Every structure is written in structure tokens, then in C-alpha cells.
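Practice problem: predict the structure.
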Amino acid sequence: MLPRKRDAWILLGVLCLVKISTQHGSGAPPGACLDQMPRHSSILPQSSVPPYAISTSSAQVRQGDSINVTIGSPFGAPVPIGGFILQARAIQNTEQIIGKFTTVPYPETTQIINCRGENDTVTHSTPEDKPPLTFTWRAPADFLGGVAFRATVAQSYATFWRNVESSLVEVVSPDTVITTPSIVTTTQTTKQEPPVIMESKPKTTPPPLDVIYQGCADTKLCFGVPQNCIASGNCKAVVAIFVVGDTYTFEIQGTDNPKYVAAALSTDNKMGDDSAMECVRNDNGRVTLFTSWTYPKSEPYVKRSDSPQEIVQLLESSTIDGKLYCKFKRDAVSTVKGQIFDMAKNKYYLMVVSGDTMKDAERVGFHTLAFESTSEPLALASVGTAAGASKLLLKLHGCFMLIAWLGTASLGIVLARYFRKTWVGKTLGGKDIWFAYHRILMVGTWVLTVVGFIIILVEVGGFATTGDNPHAITGLVTVILCFIQPIGAYFRPHPGTRKRPIFNWAHWFFGNAAHILGIATIFFAVYLQKAELPPWTVYVLAAFVVFHVVMHIVLSFAGFRKHLLGVYAPIIIIFVIVLICLVALAPIGEAYNSVMGA
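Answer:
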């Protein structure tokens, strides 16, 4: 290193220390400490892969314990270190500096300083070339989650690398069992002289999980949507609870740029009469925490004024990359709407929801992005991943309605319209064969629809609307029309009587109206969050409609209808099977990964 460059680096360090003493007596200037930029005039950091790496003596550290952190070279031969600044940064909030350093390897050339907190940063004190440096860092007693050690390292005044980072280090609770520590680094195995400037190489290691997922296996109780999303860290909404003594710390996070994400404590797995905690993103980008009380299937649905706000205390919040995150404490015992919530003594169902709208300034909107409840009440001090409620009834409802309105109803209507004069001379059970099959198919439609309707009433605990989606309304009208069709058919006038034409037109109108409404209701179901269907399902349904309409047109003019029925029926069955698979395996992506062992 040239003397003038060394002098310039010394001058920079002195100026930083002067600013610390004159403007920030307990920390470095906010700009320098936060962005770790040396501010060497207009000189920019190197864009190549740095010849430095940061390693740690363990991938986990208990609260209050220490680990060693080393700045060195990943190439075998040491690369001299001129100047540097090193800090531990929180994974969830990279502007947060965590913990403190307790020892430095060479007090004459390195030092501990204060940036945002006491002893939270290490840097050089002289510009002399230094060998690999190992520091001792102590984890704070009041922090749980992931940290990464970040540094800017300079070889000379004009050559420095920014954002040199270690692998993830997880700060865990004092009672966590940690396996034998091993050096955690990204060093390469080949021995070679390190080049100062190297070509960039893509990283093969996956990005670290968000901090809310860290500890779900051994220190937290975690629950997310969709099911089995915790391990991969891709939940649409997730809640995590960490308990130390009588302190209950909650974390909630939602993706897809939600307006709010919320968690609730409930005595059952149905929405209503629950104590909710809402993390709301305001229009100015700031995040606010509220508590509220939910009402089952009636206005106001959610009401904040019925829940005391002082039972929760916001600790952290962020909105990063479309993710809304909150960390807060809740009183171990609280009273809401006359109901005592004692989290230490009682078990509760956990609910997590998120949505992209607000009803008004005081109420969150419908949970359009995510909603799920645990399958059973849980002791909130337990650890691990909670299972969601069974969706068997929901999926049976969907499958029954698909068979009824895309399958049996479509075939039954085609037989009645085009084959009453084509299929003649043959009988089944004393009736013309077209009528016998028409009646079998339509009775099947009626049975499947009624059973499917009863199933969904049991699943949701009664009739309930689905926000702005008209699925529930059109579905109810479809069920009513379907229910009265066989009753009208039973009392139909005899052929040739004066009222028979009126019956024929009414039976045709209500039957086709029910069929059209039934298919429209299935279209609406694609957009229901609970259905968890891929968006492209609507194109499969559209293809079915196009095929169905085209076949009606062809059958209206063709003279070989029996052959066309041999084409129409198998294709309709294929459509129904495909859609049943989408419903039964939803969410299809998770099911595919499970089958493939991903």
C-alpha cells in the first residue's frame, strides 16, 4: 500500500471518529455506520467477487453466549486486509445492528467502536496490512432470530469490496441444544493464489429463510398457509409464537403485498368470537398494530373498540419485498368481551389471515389472500409446526358439484334435447331409453347437489357469504332450482293435456337456468382463497364451456347424433376428471412437490 493511500485511510478513520465524538458520542455517524461506505470521493466498490470471506465458529449461538467471527480469504493464501468495518445485521431488518464485540485480535491495529449501540462495530485503527482477523461477538439476551455478519473490506484506498457477508447465524434460546460447533464459511477447496479481481460466479446456495421461520423446529410454535409451507419458507401468511417464562412474543407475516395480516386465538376453528391481532399497512407505508374482536357471519364482523389495545405491544415491523411483518408481545392473561384468554393455562385454535383491502378505517376487509385455522387447540408454549384443519369436506363439496354440473347435468340435458326422437324403439325399465338415462343422470345431479350443499353447510357452520365473490349466492340459487326440478317433474301433466306445454317450457327454463348458474358458480369458486386452485383453472373451465356449446350447435344440425354422443360423453368425463384432480390435490404445486419428494 502506498504511503499517501495509507495516510488517506488514516485520515478517513480520524474524521469518522471526530464525527462520532462531536455528533454521536455513542455511535458512528448514521450514514457511515449504516451503509459501510468509506466515502473515498467518487470511488465505487469493486463489482467482482471479493477475495475475502467471513466465517463463524458456529451456525447457532444461544442468547448471551459468544462466537468467533473471522475475516479472511476463501482462497487458501491470505490476502492482506488494509481497512474494514464489520457488524452483525438482523436478517429481517438489515438496518438493525445486533449484539456487541468483546475482543479484537490486534489492539494496536483494530478497535471496537459504537455505531448504533455499545461496542456493536469493529474497525481498523491503522492502515497497515493485516492478516486474517478473528473477533469475539456476543449475542444479545433480548434477540431471537437470524443474523449475518456484514463488512466492507479494503485492500487500498481505491480498491475495496462492500457487502461481504457471512452465512446465516441463528440466535436461539438458552435451553436450545447446539451440536458441536464447526467453522461455517464459504471457502473454496482448491489451493491457488488469490486474484484481486475475479469474474462473478452465481451463488448456488439458496437465500436464507425469513427470520419468522427460524426456530420453528425447536424454539417456536409456527403455523402457516398453505399447509406444509413452513419448511420451505414460502407461506402466504404465517404466525410464530415464542415463549420465555410468562412472556409471549408473536410474529406474523403475510406475502403478496397485503394490506393487513392477522392472527387470532379461538375456542373453535370457525371464524367468529375470536381475539384477533392485526398488523395493518397504512397508506404512508408505516405499520400499525391493533387488537379486535370478530363476530360470526354478521356485521360488524370485526370491531376494534370491543378489544383492549393495551394487551399488545409492538416490537418490530417492516414492509419489505411485498412482505408485511410484525413482531409484538401479548399479555399472558387478558380479558376481551368478557372472555378471559389465559395463554399459560388454556389451549387455543390459532388462526392466520391476510387480505388486500380494508372495509373502512377501523375494519379489515375480507381475507382474500389467506385464511386457515389449526386442526386442534394448541398449548401456545409448545414448539414445532402446527397442522391446519382438515379440508376433506371442502374438497368433497367441490368434487360433488363438479360431477353434478359439468358431468351428469350436461349429459342429461343433451339426452333430453337431442335424443328423444333419435333413441326410439328401445326401453329401459319400461321407459324410452333416452328418458331412462336422462332421469338417472338428473337424479344423480340432484343427489350430488343436495349432499354437496349439506357438506358445505357443515364445513362452514351454516350459510355464509364469501366477501365480494358471489359464489355463495349463485350456489344457493342453483341448489334451490335443482331441488324443485324433480318435484315439478313428479307432478307433470300427462302428454296431450292443455297444461303440458307450460310444464315443458318451465322445466326447460329452470333446468337450463340451474345448469348455467351451476357452471358460473364453479367459475367463481376458482377465485376463492379456500379453494387454493391455480389461476389457470379458469381456462380449463372455459375450454369445457366452448366444447359444450360447439357440441350443442353440431348436434342441432348433424344427423349422426349417436356417434357424436360417443365423442361428447368421453371428453366431458375427461374434463370432470381433470378438474376433480385439481380440487382434490389443491394446492396443486404443494401436492406435486410432495409426490416428487421435493
